[in-house]
Amino acid sequence: MAEAAAKRNSLPPKKATTSSTASTPSSTSTTSSTTSAGITPKSVSTASSTTNGARTNSTSSTAKSSTSTSTTTASRQQKEEARRLKSAEDVEFMLKIKDTKYAHKRQTHDNSSLTTETTETTLVGPNDRELHDELKRLHTDYEAMKLRAERAEREKSDILLRRLASMDTASNRTAASEALALQQKVNEMKDQLEKVNEEKRKLNIRMKEIENNPKGGEYELKRKLQAAEQLCEELMEENQDAKKEIINLQAEMDELQDTYLDDEVKAK
């Protein structure tokens, strides 16, 4: 009995241990469930805060990149503006240098044009020599152009004369041919008049010589004098006739010219 009681006494503690052991897993499960239940909201809040932080970081990085881009663009524009201003200043400086050189050359040219040829030949400066050579070249070109203009003027007059001579109307051809013939006749009469005047001058000189030397035979001198006077009278008459004929020919030429102009006006 005592042994049975001892066994019984010994059993309950074993059951209590078992229950305590059983209760330990339950408490462990409860703790684990509680722990799991407590950890889940924290992890969710941490994840959401991490996502928000990432978004904030991305927004700030985007703002920083846009700010850096605008800063880079502004600096680039400033550099381009500075480069443009520098190029404009360089161009203005070059123009000033060219204007100064041109003014200096012009002043040198004016000063050299006032000096004599001897002074110009004794100049040593290269600019003066260049200006002198250029002046000579321009003078040569001017003379060449002048000759070309004169040649062109002569060619123009020849062309006009040919055009007048080659007109189709018979009256114009007749008037032109008659005017040409009369002009040739006038030229011939002028030549004859010059010859007559020359012969008259020689005879007058001969008469003066005879008058100044009366040693010859009086008869011979009188005969020669009479012959000379007669010849002079004949020459004077021929001279008067030639003058009258020239005047008549000139009048005829004027009439033909007027007729030609009237025919030309009518033809137009």
Automatic annotation (TrEMBL):
Which InterPro entries does the record associate with it? Answer: MTCL1-3 (IPR049885)
Q: Does the keyword Coiled coil apply?
A: yes
Q: Give residue spans, biased composition: Polar residues.
A: 42-55
Question: Superkingdom, according to UniProt?
Answer: Eukaryota
Instruction: Give the compositionally biased regions (Low complexity).
Output: 16-37, 56-75
Keywords, A to Z, come to: Coiled coil
Is the keyword Coiled coil assigned to this protein?
Answer: yes
According to the UniProt record, where is the region Disordered? 1-88
Q: Coiled-coil region(s) at which residues? A: 135-266
Report biased composition (Basic and acidic residues) as residue ranges: 77-88
List the protein's name: Uncharacterized protein
Q: What is the lineage of its organism?
A: Eukaryota, Metazoa, Ecdysozoa, Arthropoda, Hexapoda
